[in-house]
Amino acid sequence: MDTTDADAPGTVRVRGLQKRYGDRAVLAGIDLDIAPGETYALLGPNGAGKSTAIEILEGLRRPSAGEVSVLGRNPLAAPRAWRGRIGIVAQQTGDLGPFTARELVARFHRLYPNPRPVDEVLDLVGLTAQARVRATKLSGGQQRRLDVALGIVGRPELLFLDEPTTGFDPDARRQFWSMLSGLTSEGTAILLTTHYLDEAAHLADRVGVLSAGEIVAEAPPEALGGPEARIPEVRWRDANGRQRSERTETPGGFVARLQGEWGVDEPPELEIRRPSLEDIYLDLIGTDTHGGAAS
After folding, report:
1. CA distance 11 to 158
2. How confident is the model at residue 188, as a pLDDT?
3. What burial class does residue 186 get, using C-beta atoms within 10 Å of its C-beta: 0-12 exposed, 13-18 middle, 19+ buried?
4. Is residue 124 predicted with pLDDT exceeding 80?
5. What range does the domain containing 243 cover?
6. Number of domains in the chain
7. Is the four-CA dihedral 282, 288, 293, 294 of positive or negative sign?
């Protein structure tokens, strides 16, 4: 394992990252680059290795092999000041204690050299009205917003977001997306994990699909899987009542030919379906939908 602290281009640079537990490989040699101001969505089923990879980048877990550079430092050997340059929104809400939302943000505010104003943070995450409410009395979605507030109060250069909008209603999710766009415009890089494919499509500059410990595809959301994965599919029911389908790059012409064969009536249940990001993602992960102790 490379433990040097040599500066590396970009915010995150990972080469050949492996993590093994005995004979089981959780990460089988992944490469990853994230640039300043970029939002990168790491997708994959439970047990694919997402949480393990993120914990290694955060300096919370030791890799078995490979080179890891985060903000130019090896996370395991980085000084205390390095941790003040990252923000972490974990999947589970931590111990909130007897404090109000504002008191918690204020306590974290004092830990950083150039933090955001407390009231600005509460406004960004939509908790101004709940500022004086004890954190343990907040709803699940409001506690999740508080988690995000504690992650961004220090103006991080790199923000780790692990399933950040769990418990948000649709309107709150879209407000959150808008807030993240503001952070990236200031140069904050974001590493996001989410089970919401529309969230990845909306937020991410690039998407990486992690399956069985390997990144099996990486591209902007609109290009994931390559051109062949996005060929439309025409579906209809034939004269014998059988469900038929055909993938074609010219669905309009194909439908016109079908219409000609059927005369004045169009084929029953005729539809043109263009693969969604979710369809492409499910094709990429294939049968890797297992759960596991390490995710």
Report:
1. 7
2. 92
3. exposed
4. yes
5. 233-273
6. 2
7. negative
